[in-house]
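Predict structure. Chain length: 196.
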Amino acid sequence: MLDLPRATTEAVCAALGLQPWHDPTNADPRDTAPEDPGRRRALVRASTLPRLEADLGPGVAAALARSAALLREDADLLDALAAELLAAAVAPHHATDHAGGTSDPGGPPGAVDVASEGGLSLDVDALAAAHAALRTRALHQAATCAGVPAGTLAAVHVEALDRLVTAWHGQGPVHLPGAVEGRRACGRLLLASASR
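Prediction complete.
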């Protein structure tokens, strides 16, 4: 029903004698506090989309929804390929590396299990050989596997990790949220708690 316009869902509810629930985050943005996290979404819905429809013609919201669906499929594929790359980068060294993770045979394909005390050790050559789009997604996944709290990892953190892989010249460690550190040593990218 997310693809249906509001007028259609309201008409269906009326025809069936149902009382729809009105999400307060969809309220008029003039009725919400400036710091309200739903305010921006309400502004887009109440002001931006109608203006785009007026300027460009009807169907803007539907076109954006179609584009989002296509991009979601693309993102799902890239995430799966990045997980395979991450598993391959872990695999060459996992059996003997005291700081390495291991491929999880019981998890989904490409899943990585990180030893709670050890962190994650990745083969730099395997990462460097990959396309940048896959490599940076794999690095993002690796950082979260190593303990970086979800939602705290920014593009600057991933870019700094990527430089340890592709533009390493002896630079020091990369400090990540959650007291996780990324550093390069002996052809490996090591992601572990900075307190180790």
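Summary: The two ends are 50 Å apart (CA to CA).
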